[in-house]
Amino acid sequence: xxxxxxxxxxxxxxxxxxxxxxxxxxxxxxxxxxxxxxxxxxxxxxxxxxxxxxxxxxxxxxxxxxxxxxxxxxxxxxxxxxxxxxxxxxxxxxxxxxxxxxxxxxxxxxxxxxxxxxxxxxxxxxxxxxxxxxxxxxxxxxxxxxxxxxxxxxxxxxxxxxxxxxxxxxxxxxxxxxxxxxxxxxxxxxxxxxxxxxxxxxxxxxxxxxxxxxxxxxxxxxxxxxxxxxxxxxxxxxxxxxxxxxxxxxxxxxxxxxxxxxxxxxxxxxxxxxxxxxxxxxxxxxxxxxxxxxxxxxxxxxxxxxxxxxxxxxxxxxxxxxxxxxxxxxxxxxxxxxxxxxxxxxxxxxxxxxxxxxxxxxxx
Length: 364
Fold this sequence. Notes:
The chain is mainly α. It has helices spanning 10-56, 71-93, 96-99, 105-116, 124-142, 153-160, 163-187, 192-221, 230-256, 259-282, 290-312; strands at 334-336, 342-344. It starts with 9 loop residues before the first helix and ends in a 20-residue tail after the last strand.
């Protein structure tokens, strides 16, 4: 006599579910690795494009936008977009605790490629700093609170307009404006933290907006249209604005500083601030144990230590002066006679101390 499946059939179903879960995790793992490879390589393509554009006109670090006409820069942009899409799809198959730490692989990819392709030497202490950044970020991610996914755009709007997150948003806006309007023109070319702080702080708001847009798209696909809610379009405009600002200042950072230093610092700061913003918005820290919170603090300290080591081992960048001539020796000066005729101190215009070095690129 045939029997319909009963509880006795649960083990096979459980086995099938376990196998499916393993398959999904494997897909997420592979997509995350591919994403890191594409994103890491994109830094190199964009850097080479920025160099080419800078050789023909104003550099991005000095406010130029010639890189928008450079094909190699667009190859880098497309490569980065493909990597970000792969990363987004990876989250559909695997949990964040598996996917997010693998983003650190992009640092290794960009550092290795920069060493061989861009000839940007990574010092031994720089390797140590890179390891510290990866280790600290991994600790932060592994102990980060699990997010409670909102079920509608209106719900995430309520989370975004709560006093704590509004205060965070206002702080990010104020700090970013100070960095962009005051610090960037004065210290942007000499301090790597200026450009990357702008990218990272603005980037944390970008992620929050992208999450809202993702929820809207998902609900719309499921048959619950979210296009009619004004919140969806507010999040869209915020995301577009933040992404544009990020791209501008990330290009400036890549054009001005060593890629092997930019990548890990940007990753570490962006990851830390994103987790912090998410914790404030979704109030995930309220349910965490003291040990998890302590682990996250240790991870942040480790990241800051790695950032300091990387910054201190950065190779000096060549001067970006546009003068045609180098300064004259301090031993040379002119004495103006009464007849306005210039004479050298020792009346020897052809003295060995008198020379002028003309930039080679002036003749190319």
